[in-house]
Amino acid sequence: MSEAAAGAPGHTGIRRKGARELVAQAIVDSFRKFHPAVQVRNPVMFIVWLSMFVTLALTFDPGLFGKTDVTAAYNGFVTAILFFTVWFANFAEALAEGRGKAQADSLRQTKTDVTARRIVDDDTFEVIMAGALRKGDRVRVERGEIIPTDGEILEGIASVDESAITGESAPVLKEPGTDMFSTVTGGTRILSDWLVFRVSADPGHTFLDRMIHLVEGARRQKTPNEIALTVLLAVLSLIFLVVVATLKPLAAFLHIDLDVATLIALLVALMPTTIGALLSAIGIAGIDRATRFNVLAMSGRAVEAAGDVQTLILDKTGTITMGNRQATEFVPLPGYSESDVAAIALAASWYDTTPEGRSIVALAVARGVKHDPVWERGQGVEFTAETRMSGTDLPDGRKARKGAVAAVARYVQEGFKTTAPAELKGAAELVARKGATPLALAIDGELVGVIGLSDVLKPGMRERFAHMRSLGIKTVMVTGDNPITARVIAEQAGVDDFVAEAKPEDKIRVIRSEQARGRLVAMTGDGTNDAPALAQADVGLAMHSGTVPAKEAANMIDLDSDPTKLIDVVAIGKQLLITRGALTTFSIANDVAKYFAMLPAMFMLALPGVSALNIMHLATPESAVLSALIFNAIIIPILIPLALRGVRFQPTTANHMLARNVLLYGLGGLIVPFIGIKVIDLLLSPFLR
Ligand SMILES: Nc1ncnc2c1ncn2[C@@H]1O[C@H](COP(=O)(O)OP(=O)(O)OP(=O)(O)O)[C@@H](O)[C@H]1O
Ligand SMILES: [K+]
Ligand SMILES: [Mg+2]
Q: How the protein assembles, per its UniProt entry (predicted)?
């Protein structure tokens, strides 16, 4: 999964700025962030910021807080280092925000106001600006035009270039009716034919608008985890403030004069400034990494939740399998021939626009069924996941139906008081054992045969689920299909568990029961009937090709409409959590080390006994304090690349990973400052003499 970790090159439709441009912009922005309103949101850095003004005052008047031998130059030096400390923190955040800002700019260019053809009545249009379109308006778009806003397709069939949004250059075929590909997005271009659609978003609330807000981070809010960590860091800083403040009277008692600038330097060195400076950059980078995978995360919280997910709920059809179910066989029941089944299957599928329905028509035609004008006057009965059936009411009053075997058996029992023949079960099992989906076919309550719909497992699923298992994540396949087909596919794919004959509301039930056990749950979906479950899940990933309600309920949208992307999203979330944990560990370990570097130096002159602690042999007390403070500042920019890129992420269990990181970043955090401070001291001390 190192792909996610390394941040595979993005392929969003969003144009990316060059690295140099981004850095230049971040430098400009980092100065704006000195504003107190920005600083106050980050308590640790706010204390550094305030301290900077105190030492600045001391630079002008070293005797401000009483007589001292400390020079203005020393105080000025401390002030400069504090300035850089705050500036580096500002720069880290600005750099993390930069990519999103650049993306937002390029998306805004897509948003040029185009005109739209609003339908007034059946044969009159009016041409208005796209910005005047409201939810519910009907609009016609033709070949070559930019689609003015989002909507649900009512009529027509057309190929659409969505690369402005998804980055995918292959055109997408759009048409009304199905769960997939029946919506259009403002800003995309229609390449062929025409479409009539109903506007689904008011101005300012379109997908493009939401996308701009999102990548720009305009409404970025701290996640609960970030808030908790911020509070913890603030409390830690306050404790150090008290400790350092009490040092002064203590030292006075020993006749040591500790000057204010040195005390401030000690305070800043002790406070968790490294993580305080990088915390928000880490969070922003996590969202940005998701964007580079063409996943739009509606909040940082969603990305974080993905990192903690323990149960993954997946569909069968279209997620684990290719989903393009094709009719491959007609199995007759006693009393009927294969061609009877083909003819009745065709009648039952004449109005069925799903891929399944069309493949049945195609197979029946291939088996030689002749067109019968009688169907043209029939009435289609649409498939729903609730009834699990579809069919046609023929003009002569006969009812042709097909659907899930259990659903059709119940339908003939309840509607016609006929019991399904014993052979039905065997015929259905024959199909199901192959991992294919059996549809029972009935006419006027008489069961005629079984239609076999075959589907192909997506490649590499087994490896992906094994990988999930190694991360401690349980995978559950929830499908509307029958238990036998479900079992065959579940075994082939290697999922941990499955639920068959699930209606849409069963997905919610499965999610709730997992959540009740304290597990965080992720799921993908695209249909309107997935919307409640997408909202209930901790991580709901909707397909961009899906319906408007699904996209509104979800907290993430995959522009590539690839349900297996959930697996990458989990990796991105985990990497975010691990990066934050690792840098927090490093930061605190670092501060402990700085304490041991600075304190002996501060007391050495007055208390010769302390020199035993002075293992680092730093040149002078001033040099020791300044070196530690410089180290404290420059470690921030040194760690910016790591904060933005994320720490290396390996697929082991969470505990293992934690242990590894505490060891690496904890020990590293203890050792690195000793070396760093010593080196700075060697370089700096000649100048201080
Ligand atoms: N066009 C159709 N006409 C009649 N019955 C259908 C049609 N499409 C699917 N079915 C039946 O309805 C069942 C439920 O469909 P549903 O879409 O809820 O689940 P699914 O697609 O099989 O599985 P998943 O939930 O994993 O996508 C299918 O398993 C099939 O038996
Ligand atoms: K520090
Ligand atoms: Mg389905």
A: The system is composed of three essential subunits: KdpA, KdpB and KdpC.
